[in-house]
Amino acid sequence: MFYPRVKLTLHLIGSILKFLALAYIVPLAVALHYGENWQIFLYSLLLTFIVGIILEFSFKTTREIERADGFSLVSFTWLMVALLGMAPYLFWGCNFIDAFFESMSGFTTTGATILTGLEQCPRSILMWRSLSQWLGGMGVITLFIAILPKLGVGGSQLFAQEFPGPIHEKFRPRVRTVARFLWIIYISFTAIEVGLLYLLAKLPLFDSTCLSFCTLSTGGFTPTTKSIAAYANPTAEYIIMAFMFLAGMNFIIHYRASRGDFKAFKDEEFKIYAILLAAATALLIFSQGAGSCRESLFQTISIMTTTGFATTDFGAWHYGACMILLTLMLIGGCGGSTSGSVKVVRFLTLLKRVRAMMKKVISPKAIILVKYNQKTLPEEILRDTMSFLFLYLIVAVIASITLGFLGLDMETSFSAVAASLGNVGPGLGGVGPASSYAWLPPAAKFVLIICMWLGRLELFTVLMIFVPRFWQR
Questions:
Q1: Which position has the higher pLDDT, 443 or 336?
Q2: Who contacts 117 (Cβ-Cβ below 8 Å, separation ≥6)?
Q3: Beta-carbon-side half-sphere exposure of residue 79 (alpha carbons within 13 Å)
Q4: pLDDT (tens digit, 9 = 90+) per residue, 444-455?
Q5: Residue 125 CA: distances (Å) to CA of 37, 102, 116
Q6: Mean pLDDT within 3-12
Q7: Taking 70 as the threshold, does the pLDDT of residue 173 lie above it?
């Protein structure tokens, strides 16, 4: 099974890269408009297109996608997209590790950056950073399931590996239709935010577009070094807060609501998501004072949705406030959203499981069922949730210890891993919102690149390809 699976994986990656090359047209047009070096995007387009053509036609196959193929295809597609997506940074003058870091951070919607003095960077580079986050937000594979016929067959296997969160069984037979509808919602929200930022907040059209790309993807890149604080625009902040909140919700709720099913808002995870945001905001206001209402609300939504925008240097806040933000960073948004980290639904499931175990201790003979949205959760889901949380902790600990041995202090090590594995962006200490990741040693950057890749695909999808037995099936 090794060679047929590799052949299928490379063939489909080639098909995806061939069309993904067209994304370079956007920064190419921006470079032409502003009189910048447009050749770097033309070269990047040609390189990506040629690699795609070579892979697609060198590994032709009629094999259909099976469930196990989804792990290898999704994992290697994201790796290849990040590798080829770093071409503009290389042609611009970045070294390999920095270019790879910025590209992986973009496509995984992490928002950690090695670039400094963003106001002096070419606008075409800034547009590419934002566009890469937007493409990665809803998912590269999800996009091509919606538009490529060859991915329509076996699409549910791919969708399940990339789309974070549970997929309702009734959606699986029509996953291509759902993928298209999710992208329509995603594009619509982006267009509305661009319009509001440009017309109401009076931000420049370029900035409005970049910020909207990075809001709906919960990415966090901005065209300014000081993030959202650089604009000092309360109207823009409220608009961005609203769309960060929407992006942190399960997009299946948006899908159901758009079809008239407003019972979707009774979802237990959504209720906990809203409650956690409200409670954390209240605690931050209590910690920082009544005058910090807008800043506290903004940072709560930004960190919990793993967007990573900043209106202030929250790394300099009270230790208690920083711990609240770090906790939100670990929880993340809803399953099925563009946000990263562990997700509210998993913590909710864990709490329900613990509650059931405590009841079982009191009444050993009782049959205690764990329910979610009034439906009994299968033991398989409970087991998978526990395994994911345990594995997430193990990866975080190993990566943090590794950074410690590379010379980073404890606060910086742990928060950098939490921010990268959770696809948040800014952390605390040396990688806080007032800093960048540029000063880290190359080995530390490589560790965090792996964390971003693992975090975006929720660990199992990537780790499966390193199991020898996987390639023998």
A1: 443
A2: 225
A3: 14
A4: 999 999 999 999
A5: 10, 11, 13
A6: 82
A7: no
SS3 labels along the chain: CHHHHHHHHHHHHHHHHHHHHHHHHHHHHHHHHHCCCCHHHHHHHHHHHHHHHHHHHHCCCCCCCCHHHHHHHHHHHHHHHHHHHCHHHHHHCCCHHHHHHHHHHHHCCCCCCCCCCHHHCCHHHHHHHHHHHHHHHHCHHHHHHHHCHHHCCCHHHHHHHHCCCCCCHHHHHHHHHHHHHHHHHHHHHHHHHHHHHHHCCCCCHHHHHHHHHHHHCCCCCCCCCCHHHHCCCHHHHHHHHHHHHHHCCCHHHHHHHHCCCHHHHHCHHHHHHHHHHHHHHHHHHHHHCHHHHHHHHHHHHHHHCCCCCCCCCHHHCCHHHHHHHHHHHHHCCCCCCCCCCCCHHHHHHHHHHHHHHHHHHHCCCCCCCCEECCEECCHHHHHHHHHHHHHHHHHHHHHHHHHHHCCCCHHHHHHHHHHHHCCCCCCCHHHCCCCCCCCCCHHHHHHHHHHHHHHHCCCHHHHHHHCHHHHHC
Check pLDDT > 80 for residue 166.
no
Is the CB of residue 38 less than 8 Å from the CB of residue 124?
yes
Alpha-carbon distance of 144 to 117, in angstroms, equals: 35
Look up residue 390 and give its two tokens. Answer: 């345990």
Measured between its terminal Cα atoms, the distance across the chain in Å is 6
Residue 365: pLDDT above 90?
no
Confidence bin at 171 (pLDDT 50/70/90): very low
Q: What is the distance between the alpha carbons of residues 299 and 289, in angstroms, rounded to a whole number?
A: 14
346 contact partners, CB below 8 Å, separation of at least 6: 335, 385, 388, 389
Residues whose CB is less than 8 angstroms from the CB of residue 258 and which lie 6 or more positions away in sequence, other chains included: 181, 185
- Asked if 218 and 337 count as a contact pair (C-beta separation under 8 A), the reply is yes
Q: By mean pLDDT, which of 38-52, 294-308, 381-395 is the weakest?
A: 381-395
The answer to whether the CB of 230 falls within 8 A of the CB of 207 is no
Q: How far is CA 66 from its chain centroid?
A: 25
- The pLDDT of residue 146: 57
Whether 377 and 383 have beta carbons less than 8 Å apart is answered as: no
Question: What's the CA gap between 139 and 131, in Å, rounded?
Answer: 12
What average pLDDT is seen over the chain?
88
Phi–psi pair at 312, nearest 5 degrees: -160, 165
* Structure-model confidence comparison of residues 267 and 31, the more confident one: 31
| Domain range annotation of the chain | 262-326
